[in-house]
Amino acid sequence: MKLTTLGTKNLPNENAIAKKVKNEHVFVITFAQNGQLPGKATIKIKLDGNWLSGKNKNNIYIYYYNPIKNKVELIAKKLKVYEKGYVQFDITYCSDYFATGKDLVEAGILPKTGSSINFIMLINFGTLCLLTRIGIMGFRKKD
Questions:
Q1: 138 in a structural domain
Q2: Residue 130 maps to a domain
Q3: CA 70, 105, 74, 19 torsion: positive or negative?
Q4: What global pTM score does this model have?
Q5: Is 137 a domain residue?
Q6: What is the tens place of the pLDDT at every residue in 91-105?
Q7: How far is Cα of residue 91 from the mean position of the Cα atoms in its chain?
């Protein structure tokens, strides 16, 4: 396992990660073997003290870089840094991960994914359409 910041030039997906995070100062966690794990594994790593300097130690985010899809996925948020700089999170796949001191979607660095449609509003709209249709049918004259 390698633990480093971007800019070391010795990580296989360093350029792709740097581009995704727009060269944001992130702490990269790279596993030597890539692949699916047989189950969930809890990882405890020590973050670099220089990297942690000035960051909220109760607000660490962990992202997974998926090289096949060229996408970044949030896997843990608002983690607390424990004594001596350790942070703990779960993984199911060995690959490249990185830590940040903020939510990269909220910061506008990563794109927001998923539907922007509020499910409750969709149900309310459907109910309104149904009630309108029933109301129109009620006012119709019968032949």
A1: no
A2: no
A3: positive
A4: 0.76
A5: no
A6: 999 989 999 999 999
A7: 13
Contact in structure between 90 and 103 (CB atoms under 8 Å): no
Q: Which residues span the domain enclosing 25?
A: 2-112
What letter would DSSP give residue 67? T
Whether residue 35 is contained in a domain is answered as yes
What tokens does 110 get? 């990563």
Q: How does DSSP classify residue 82? A: B
Q: How far apart are CA 3 and CA 135, in angstroms?
A: 65
Residue corresponding to tokens 């109301």: 135
Q: What is the pLDDT of residues 4-63, one digit of tens each?
A: 888 776 778 888 999 999 989 999 999 877 788 999 999 999 999 999 999 999 999 999
Percentages of the chain per state (helix, strand, coil), in multiples of 5: 25, 40, 35
Looking at residue 40, which CATH number applies to its domain?
A: 2.60.120
Q: Please provide residue 73's backbone torsions phi and psi, each rounded to the nearest 5 degrees.
A: -125, 130
Please count the structural domains in the chain. 1
Answer yes or no: are the C-beta atoms of 68 and 54 closer than 8 Å. Answer: no
Joined together, the tokens standing for residue 10 give 């010795």
d(CA 126, CA 137): 17
